[in-house]
């Protein structure tokens, strides 16, 4: 499957978050073209500020493979990760990150903090942003318009 195929999968998961009243962000962790784990935002439902889509996936994947190090994996997420999620992604040793919409205000890959290039992190993450950007951004924009 291509990056776009996996991002479509993440978008479907983001729609699931939206149906639950959560900010519509979805994520999928893949190794060797196999989905290890998937998740979506659930902080409201779970009463957990750390229950971002990325964190959900990392937790599920660690349990699935019985290892907190997620070597040689690719994480697909519909929104540029925040600082919390980027820290967890680095600690998990995710090899590659692919995201859809950019987050100029809170994004920690290439915007607010640019943690993808931080010299103090002991793991370098290859990343690609803007995959299905218009679709991912539209879902978020429509969600927040409806909430206002």
TrEMBL record:
Stated role: Catalyzes the deamination of adenosine to inosine at the wobble position 34 of tRNA(Arg2).
CMP/dCMP-type deaminase domain sequence ranges: 1-128
Lineage: Bacteria, Pseudomonadati, Pseudomonadota, Gammaproteobacteria, Methylococcales
Keyword terms, alphabetized: Hydrolase, Metal-binding, tRNA processing, Zinc
Cofactor binding notes: Binds 1 zinc ion per subunit.
Cofactor(s) the protein needs: Zn(2+)
Organism: Methylomonas methanica (strain DSM 25384 / MC09)
Residues noted as binding Zn(2+) in the record, renumbered to the chain: 52, 82, 85
Complex and partners: Homodimer.
Domain of life, source organism: Bacteria
GO molecular function: tRNA-specific adenosine-34 deaminase activity; zinc ion binding
PANTHER family per the UniProt record, alphabetical: CYTOSINE DEAMINASE FAMILY MEMBER, TRNA-SPECIFIC ADENOSINE DEAMINASE
Enzyme Commission code(s) on record: 3.5.4.33
Keyword Nucleotidyltransferase tagged: no
Residues at the active site: 54
Catalytic reaction list: adenosine(34) in tRNA + H2O + H(+) = inosine(34) in tRNA + NH4(+)
Gene assigned in the entry: tadA
Name of the protein in question: tRNA-specific adenosine deaminase
């Amino acid at each position: 499957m291509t990056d776009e195929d996996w991002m479509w999968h993440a978008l479907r998961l983001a729609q699931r978050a939206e149906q639950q009243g959560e900010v519509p962000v979805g994520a999928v962790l893949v190794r060797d073209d196999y989905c290890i784990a998937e998740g979506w935002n659930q902080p409201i439902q779970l009463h957990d500020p750390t229950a971002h889509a990325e964190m959900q996936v990392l937790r599920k994947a660690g349990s699935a493979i019985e290892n907190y190090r997620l070597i040689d994996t690719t994480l697909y997420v519909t929104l540029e990760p925040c600082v919390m999620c980027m820290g967890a992604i680095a600690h998990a040793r995710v090899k590659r990150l692919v995201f859809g919409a950019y987050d100029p205000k809170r994004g920690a890959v290439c915007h607010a903090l640019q943690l993808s290039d931080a010299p103090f992190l002991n793991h370098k993450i290859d990343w690609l942003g803007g995959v299905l950007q218009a679709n991912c951004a539209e879902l978020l924009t429509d969600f927040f318009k409806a909430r206002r």
